[in-house]
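Following up on my earlier message about uracil. Here are the inputs again, as you asked, copied directly from the submission form:
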Amino acid sequence: MERLQKVIAESGITSRRKAEELIIDGKVKVNGELVTELGTKVSEKDMIEVNGKVLEKEVKEYYLLNKPRGVISASSDDKGRRVVVDLIPTSVRLFPVGRLDYDTTGVLLLTNDGEFSNIMTHPKNQIDKVYLAKLEGIIKGDQINQLKNGVVIDGVKVSASRVKLKKTDLEKNTSMVEITIHEGKNHQVKKMFEAVGFKVLKLTRERVGIFTTLGLQSGEYRKLSPKEVAIVYSLKK
Ligand code: URA
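Thanks, got it. Here's what our run produced:
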């Protein structure tokens, strides 16, 4: 069972806030009965009418985008900047599953399925988010261990489940490090490296769970297969 305003908003006809207004204003019926209570719960089987029109359920869509640099991970931007959903032509209201920074590239999932998004992002499901970071400076074993043991960012202790030094360039004074985390806090990878004294010069997300950018050029996308979606649902703990 879901809250009525959530179901109306997820059908794609309006926002959650507007849906609440419609309910309060007496514009919504459930199984032919007027409902003005915001907390009302409904199921798949209930027939919902908004302004006299039966609510169609929006089909669920799932995409994997190889996010390019210079695009915002959002559904819209009030300053009119390019957002990731602009890269995928569809009539459903997509949103990104988690966020990549403006200058971060790589694996980004997009969907209109809230539950799918929750499964992928909730730390309890332990889904790998694997990043390749180019750092300014040469990282040492001690600092790698610190990342594994946990560092404090924004007052919260977070740790990497794996950290692998891929390459160092003594001449250019840079390190390439693969880091795996299970959460998705704001700027988490950059802040974790900052906590051990390194600036991230470049960041790419190489993998999220079973998803990689294999076969996708920067800016390209593909639909997930029903099997891939089922695998994600099977990961729910
Ligand atoms: N961590 C970051 O710092 N930036 C991202 O875009 C993703 C994870």
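One observation from looking it over: Helices lie at 4-10, 16-24, 114-121, 141-149, 188-195, 226-234. Hope that helps, and feel free to reply on this thread.
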